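quick q for whoever's on today - can somebody do inverse folding on this one?? i tried earlier but teh output was garbage lol. tokens:
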């Protein structure tokens, strides 16, 4: 056998990989929606002398006008002078809105165009991913040539995929005015996501499909839709299953962005390629599922195309996944980001020895469910089977602690928890916690009037323990002094008595006793109390009026 001939193992792996690729190609993918832009060819060229030079060379069907930021106006192309006015710009291809000056003043001016060619020293839109239809170029001749080419063909109707799906019902952004998770907002390099009260809103015209919003979302409320998470998971599962069933060994799953595939060198025979739209669109649930289904290693091939903000968020996702793997007894090299040029047999990490069976659970598009299935399997195959272990703060797993000295069991936390991790006891004053549901959004802590709740990032690995309810705090109920019905806690009643001690309406013993009654008994007693009726206790502090309007 010569050096150029594959070994027996390589030949077997090549055949297995071919069978896996053939099987994966037959998968159907759920379609996503379409976002449409319409451009009539109106171009605003921003700058000085160079803007006038470029605008003069723009020909129909494009129509140029100039926003002159410096220099004097020249004849030929319609121009507007900035003249020291404030400038605000918003919009996207086909719908840019440029405001000059102060609205309502004589110097105010509104310009509507389809595209903006910015030749200024600093960009008007300072985003890692500016909106479609906006370009910022320098002033050198080669830059101006590139700017002119960028405008070519930009008239008509253009389509792109709707890259995301959003389920507001499980979003952990906010509840009852209390702020929680902002991961998608903070990580979006296109700044396409904003807060709208208790939900977030994605502008589909600004979204560029980076996918990091779905990766960092702790609940799965934000999902990548090109393709959907269930489609991606099924592709990974089928590739691994077919490869292993065909006799392949030591499979490596490599996620790579479609635009970076050309940067890969010839790949080893045991490497299974998962081409995605954007590298940051695939998160820890997909990586862990691949390991559970039999991958010896998961690699993220980085071609340098991930924007900085998304790259940092992806780095944090990798970091807490490393904590999960380490806590379960697996080497951190089981998951790693690697430069495209390093995807060679010599650069691949050594495969950790795996015992036991590969997982057989079905692929699912539900984020928490897929991650839970994968982690449960990896825990079952672990030699140590740890009960729990710490992970990076900010990770979407953990528990809460309740300070018994501060908690009054007001149950504010139970009403705001978006993941149903905290609930009230059915038959007694108690706070019940389900760690399997907790996403560490912190809404419970911010909503607690007593500041009695703190968060702890950790992973409770034992599936049975993780899914069992835990009583965080419990006190005996306070029973109505009239009928004996439980209706509050002793601490709540004591706080009420203390806060109303100086109130004029609660100076008598009977009035103070009324505070220790349930709602029904309180009304009955007040009606029977002439002093209470006279003070207007039941009528908002005002005595009732008679039929003739007299008090």
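ok took a stab at it. sequence:
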């Amino acid at each position: 056998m010569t050096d150029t001939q594959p070994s027996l193992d390589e030949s077997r792996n090549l055949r297995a990989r071919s069978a896996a690729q053939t099987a994966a190609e037959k998968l159907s993918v759920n379609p996503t929606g379409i976002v449409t832009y319409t451009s009539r060819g109106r171009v605003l060229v921003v700058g000085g002398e160079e803007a006038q030079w470029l605008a003069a060379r723009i020909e129909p069907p494009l129509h140029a006008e100039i926003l002159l930021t410096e220099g004097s106006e020249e004849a030929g192309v319609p121009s507007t002078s900035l003249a020291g006015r404030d400038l605000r710009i918003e919009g996207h291809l086909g719908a840019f809105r440029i405001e000059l000056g102060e609205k309502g003043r004589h110097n105010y001016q509104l310009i509507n165009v389809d595209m903006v060619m910015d030749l200024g020293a600093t960009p008007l839109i300072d985003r890692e991913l500016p909106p479609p239809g906006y370009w910022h170029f320098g002033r050198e001749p080669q830059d101006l040539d590139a700017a002119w080419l960028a405008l070519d063909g930009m008239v008509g109707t253009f389509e792109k995929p709707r890259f995301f799906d959003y389920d507001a019902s499980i979003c952990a952004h906010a509840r009852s005015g209390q702020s929680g998770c902002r991961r998608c907002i903070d990580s979006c390099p296109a700044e396409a996501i904003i807060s709208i009260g208790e939900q977030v809103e994605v502008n589909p015209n600004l979204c560029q499909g980076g996918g990091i919003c779905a990766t960092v979302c702790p609940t799965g409320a934000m999902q990548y839709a090109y393709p959907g998470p269930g489609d991606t998971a099924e592709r990974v599962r089928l590739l691994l299953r077919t490869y292993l069933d065909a006799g392949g060994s030591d499979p490596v799953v490599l996620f790579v962005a479609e635009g970076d595939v050309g940067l890969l060198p010839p790949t080893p025979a045991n490497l299974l390629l998962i081409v995605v739209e954007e590298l940051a669109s695939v998160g820890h649930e997909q990586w862990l599922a691949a390991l559970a289904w039999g991958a010896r290693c998961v690699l993220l091939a980085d071609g340098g195309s991930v924007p900085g903000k998304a790259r940092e968020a992806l780095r944090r996702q990798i970091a807490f996944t490393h904590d999960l793997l380490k806590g379960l007894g697996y080497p951190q090299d089981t998951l790693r980001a690697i430069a495209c040029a390093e995807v060679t047999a010599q650069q691949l990490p050594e495969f950790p020895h795996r015992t036991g069976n590969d997982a057989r659970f079905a692929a699912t598009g539900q984020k928490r469910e897929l991650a839970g299935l994968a982690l449960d399997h990896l825990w079952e195959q672990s030699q140590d089977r740890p009960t729990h272990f710490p992970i990076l703060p900010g990770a979407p797993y953990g528990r809460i602690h309740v300070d018994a000295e501060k908690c009054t069991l007001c149950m504010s936390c139970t009403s705001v928890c978006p993941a149903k991790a905290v609930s009230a006891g059915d038959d007694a004053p108690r706070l019940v916690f389900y760690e399997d549901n907790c996403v560490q959004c912190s809404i419970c802590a911010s909503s607690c009037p007593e500041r009695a709740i703190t968060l702890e990032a950790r992973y409770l690995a034992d599936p049975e323990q993780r899914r069992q309810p835990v009583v965080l705090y419990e006190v005996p109920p306070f029973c109505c002094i009239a009928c004996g019905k439980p209706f509050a806690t002793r601490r709540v009643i004591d706080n009420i008595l203390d806060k109303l001690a100086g109130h004029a309406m609660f100076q008598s013993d009977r009035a103070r006793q009324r505070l220790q009654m349930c709602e029904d008994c309180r009304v009955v007693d007040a009606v029977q109390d002439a002093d209470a009726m006279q003070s207007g206790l039941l009528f908002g502090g005002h005595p009732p009026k008679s039929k003739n309007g007299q008090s």
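fwiw The radius of gyration is 32 Å. also Residues 538-551 have pLDDT under 50 and may be disordered. so keep that in mind when u check it
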